[in-house]
Amino acid sequence: MKLTTQSQRAVMAMLALALHNDRKVLRLSNLAKEQGISLSYMEQLFYSLRHAGLVEGIRGPGGGYRLGRPAGRISIADIVRAIETHGEEDRDAAACSNQANIDAMLVGLDERVAEFLDGISLESLTYKHKKQETAYRPGTTASLIARMFPARGGFMPQPAGA
């Protein structure tokens, strides 16, 4: 499992999506600007992520991208695999025996790294940083409005006997 700059950028973009409100979408142009990379580079990353089912695109005005499944079901390894397997090249079959041994060790290392990254979900990385949405209950609406518009001194009814 390769951890390249592309993989890192894809993980950062997916974290931004996970931190974003789940009901809304993010435009790639905004995401690219936030990360300081070109829009075409971001489009390449999202092409691979979309084909892996990790994100879904929403068309039309106000369109953009959102997570393809819940953040708790997307591991960092899923993201890396989506990016790195898309452009994978075949290795030279005429490698010497030492190179074959080294390759076997690297495959074992890759498997360990993949197992580790499989245990890390987007949700586990973002749960402390998500903004809590304010939920208004019907019973508190009147008190909320009353606090927004406090009564003025001259208009308060005077208690009896004052």
Automatic annotation (TrEMBL):
Coiled coil: none annotated. InterPro entries: Tscrpt_reg_Rrf2, WH-like_DNA-bd_sf, WH_DNA-bd_sf. One of its GO terms (molecular function) is DNA binding. GO terms for cellular component: cytosol. It comes from the Bacteria. It holds the Pfam family Rrf2. Keywords: DNA-binding. This is Transcriptional regulator, BadM/Rrf2 family. The lineage of its organism: Bacteria, Pseudomonadati, Pseudomonadota, Gammaproteobacteria, Thiotrichales.
